[in-house]
Amino acid sequence: MLCWYGRHGGGLAWLATSVSLFLFLALLFVIALLIVRALGRSGPPRGERPGTPGGPGAEQILAERYARGEIDEEEYRRRLATLRGAPPGGPGAPRWGGPGAPPGGDSPS
Question: Do 2 and 13 meet the contact criterion of CB atoms below 8 Å apart?
Answer without folding.
Answer: yes
